[in-house]
Design a protein that fits this description.
This protein has helices spanning 68-78, 89-94, 96-104, 124-142, 158-168, 187-197, 211-226, 234-237, and strands spanning 36-37, 45-46, 55-61, 84-87, 108-111, 148-149, 171-173, 203-207, 230-232, 249-251, 257-259. With 260 residues, it is an alpha/beta fold. α6 (187-197) runs parallel beside α7 (211-226). The protein binds zinc ion. The site of zinc ion (ZN) has 5 residues, from loops. Residues 1-23 form the signal peptide.
Length: 260
């Protein structure tokens, strides 16, 4: 499940990855009619955020799931914790009500591709189609556009990260803490790994499609909160403007600017 290679550490340190010289021109891809997000950040990729503020990002991949995601949302609400959901476009399309609930409860949506392919094996045109169609589905569903993308399996080359950043101003977010919950090592093990890896700026990976992962979340949250760490969304951890339309300027397909 690796393929991460040498991943750049976060924040402004990652800006060095950005290079127009390396970005190749990409075959024309039909542009979705959704509004384009004005460029608000300059981070090509990150696996953690360099910060001393006692905050972490809990991230949940591969949903929404019809039972487990609502169950997780109930738990997060109990602890007043915010998270980021890297959704698969096909699942987002299938469960729009859960998507709307995620956003209504103050969580963030990230792009985890349309069909969960190994992006490193795809050409740029197909990569952008996976990303664009998911952006469009999220926009159509919740009226907001993700500002981060997480590659399935972490499989995405630095050249592709640069390409995505140059072409779409999307930052690639991987993770700094991997509890390997998909291997189902047991509820306590997953919770313990999440807590032990939690430190200021950590990005914690989990999957809300697995029941045992959801069962681990209360124990993980208790441990994280006991360490004085606040679970926040990716945009909050990065001190970016809110990911959604509120307060951000968009340019619609017609070029008309408005505030979402
Ligand atoms: Zn995934």
């Amino acid at each position: 499940m690796s393929g991460l290679g040498a991943m750049c550490l976060a924040g402004t340190a990652s800006v060095g990855l950005s290079s127009t010289a390396q970005a190749q021109s990409v075959p024309a891809v039909p542009q979705p009619p959704m509004p384009r997000l004005a460029r608000t950040h300059e981070v090509v990729s990150l696996n953690a955020v360099q910060t001393t503020r006692p905050r972490v990002a809990l991230t949940f991949d591969d949903g929404p799931h019809p039972q487990n995601t609502p169950w997780l949302l109930d738990i997060l609400a109990q602890y007043n914790a915010k998270a980021t959901f890297f959704v698969i476009g096909r699942n987002a399309q299938r469960y729009p009500e859960i998507m709307r609930r995620i956003v209504a409860e103050g969580h963030e949506i990230g792009n985890h591709t349309l069909t969960h392919p190994v992006l490193a094996q795809l050409g740029d045109g197909n990569v952008l189609r996976e990303i664009d169609r998911t952006q469009q589905i999220v926009w159509d569903t919740v009226g907001a556009v993700p500002v981060t993308m997480r590659p399935p399996y972490g499989s995405f080359s630095h050249r592709q990260m640069n390409m995505l950043f140059q072409q779409r101003n999307l930052s690639t977010v991987v993770w700094s803490v991997d509890p390997q919950d998909w291997r189902r090592p047991g509820v306590s093990v997953v919770a313990d790994r999440m807590v032990r890896g939690a430190r200021p700026g950590a990005v914690i990976l989990a999957h809300d499609i697995h029941g045992p992962t959801i069962r681990a979340v209360p124990q993980a949250l208790q441990g994280i909160l006991a360490r004085g760490l606040e679970p926040v969304t990716m945009s909050d951890l990065l001190a970016w403007p809110h990911w959604g339309p509120r307060g951000l300027r968009y340019v619609s397909a017609s070029g008309h600017q408005h505030r979402g």
